[in-house]
Amino acid sequence: MLSYDEYLKMVEEHLTDTLKSLGFIPQRILDPMCYSLSAGGKRVRPVMLLAACDMGGGKTERALPFACALEMIHTYSLIHDDLPAMDNDDERRGKPSCHVAFGEDLAILAGDGLLSAASEIMLREAVLHPDGRAAAAALCVMRRAGVTGMVGGQTVDVTMENKPVTEETVRYIHLHKTADLLTAPMEAGLILAGAARDQIEAGIQFGQKLGLAFQMMDDLLDVEGDAAVLGKRTGLDDQAGKQTWIALRGVNGTKADLERTTDEAISALHIFGTSGNFFKDLALKMLHRVQ
Amino acid sequence: MLSYDEYLKMVEEHLTDTLKSLGFIPQRILDPMCYSLSAGGKRVRPVMLLAACDMGGGKTERALPFACALEMIHTYSLIHDDLPAMDNDDERRGKPSCHVAFGEDLAILAGDGLLSAASEIMLREAVLHPDGRAAAAALCVMRRAGVTGMVGGQTVDVTMENKPVTEETVRYIHLHKTADLLTAPMEAGLILAGAARDQIEAGIQFGQKLGLAFQMMDDLLDVEGDAAVLGKRTGLDDQAGKQTWIALRGVNGTKADLERTTDEAISALHIFGTSGNFFKDLALKMLHRVQ
Questions:
Q1: Residue A95: is it exposed, middle or buried by C-beta count within 10 angstroms (0-12/13-18/19+)?
Q2: Domain residue ranges of chain A, discontinuous segments joined by +
């Protein structure tokens, strides 16, 4: 297993090249796609995918195109989420949002382009490696990104603003809007490694708990975080009448749930022995993150 | 080989069920997706995919999920294309556009959802049928739908409005914005059938010529068509300063090119013998369409 920064370096080195490897892409769509792809961020999803594949005894080279595809899916969701008709955020990671920098039309197309590219990159792997693993990993990524996953969660998030907050709704939103895209790298990475079914199930369990914890922390940072450190405005959830964990449990209740959920995530790693330490550290780091 | 209406019936019967087969989809996203999917249209792309598979000696049951996926991709592109930041069309096939009926946020998400669903449906086939054909067919559909295909064409269409009209630009837009999604069904259908390489190449050739002819006719209808029959306003291209075949060649030049291109499409079918008659009829029908 490598360190977070070593996996991160692999992702950074291959992200835009993997996109460009698809063939001739008009500059006017390549620019906004690369602008948002290069805006940085922690690359937590692709790093997790590489590490999960490593943890399962697989080759990271085979996981790399999937890691890049997953980051493209995450990036498309941020571009569309920031649009005026959605969350209307004009800043992302301290820089103008894609639609502010390139216009709404190109931001919509750049999002569509990144989602298409992600699917294409994974399908290319399925054609190159007909052993079934690539197709299965691609299917799990697209399932968790799609209408029964992230897009479903986004929809409930958007349409349940200013409605009575219920645990069922908050949980659905957190699980699908956020946790699905943190579960996909565990599932896909372990599938690519050819891991056993119970290991894949444990990975899914970890991803879901980590995802819930991640969103609880996000909700907390929106209340207690530092806008300058976060690179985005705070207090937006309450303003928009969002269904958050805070609205359900309050700040202290959320903090308690966050600790418990982090413990549950770490417990799920038991099956991996010391190979699970990478993800244990990741879960603990998430508990103390400030951005 | 069946008739157009028989293939059409197969598509109509399976389209929404195929979408719903993905699992639990929140009603708030299912509604706008089904609204736009059910808005009718000629279903020319999925019908072509079924017929191409049949022409190549394949089983239409294996082609059906791909036909549905392709119609979902076409529908997502229409939903996003109609958005205020894009072509700003408030009507589609005589009904309110998706964003008029459901709001911009849900229209963006419904488009994202349909594209994701299409990819997921094709990947599910690739996992179910690990013979390589499904993965290859899915890759060709996503490639023609993505940044080197339709999304690329859309981008050039949007960004070259009110710029000097050149043949290179018009041809790029027509080939990618329109022809790629009419070429994909030929290529994917024949791949699924296990057709020989020269047959697949002939199918691609036919699809590209048909696509160019289709867009020439579209440009002509925008000038000479009947808005009531078309179910959309006319004269929009000139108003928006679009790069059209009309702007390049004039009405009479476009009509001559349309006849020539239709002839070229039909010539490409030679390799299929009498099995090619379905597509010959389709090309001739397109030459005389009024909507």
A1: middle
A2: 4-287
pLDDT at A177 over 90: yes
Query: CA-CA-CA-CA torsion for B107, A222, A184, A51, nearest 10 degrees?
Result: 150
The span from the CA of B189 to the CA of B268, in Å, is 16
pLDDT bucket at A237, cuts 50 / 70 / 90: confident
B32 contacts in A (CB within 8 Å)?
none
What secondary structure letter does DSSP report for A85?
T
pLDDT-derived band at A63 (thresholds 50, 70, 90) equals very high
Is A105 in Cβ contact with B142 (below 8 Å)? no
Residue B84 has pLDDT above 90, yes or no: yes
Rounded Cα–Cα distance for residues A82 and A233 (Å): 12
Identity of residue A218: D
Name the CATH topology of B4-287.
Answer: Farnesyl Diphosphate Synthase (1.10.600)
Q: Model pTM?
A: 0.96
Rg (CA), chain B: 18
Q: What is the DSSP string of B204-252?
A: HHHHHHHHHHHHHHHHHHHHHS-HHHHTS-SSHHHHHT---HHHHHHHH
**Which residues, including other chains, have CB under 8 Å from residue B257's CB and lie 6 or more apart?**
B216, B245, B249
Q: Which of B60, B91, B34, B19 is nearest to A146 (CA)?
A: B19
| Cβ of residue B230 closer than 8 Å to a chain A Cβ | no
Is-contact B214 B174, C-beta < 8 A?
no
Q: How many residues does chain A have?
A: 291
Structure tokens at B205: 């050739």
Is residue B192 over pLDDT 80?
A: yes
A154:B109 CB<8 A? yes
- B47 to chain A, minimum CA–CA distance in Å? 23
The ipTM of this complex is 0.96
For B106, name the nearest residue in chain A, comparing CA atoms only: A155
C-alpha–C-alpha distance, residues B270 and B280, integer Å: 10
Q: How far apart are CA A210 and CA A225, in angstroms?
A: 20
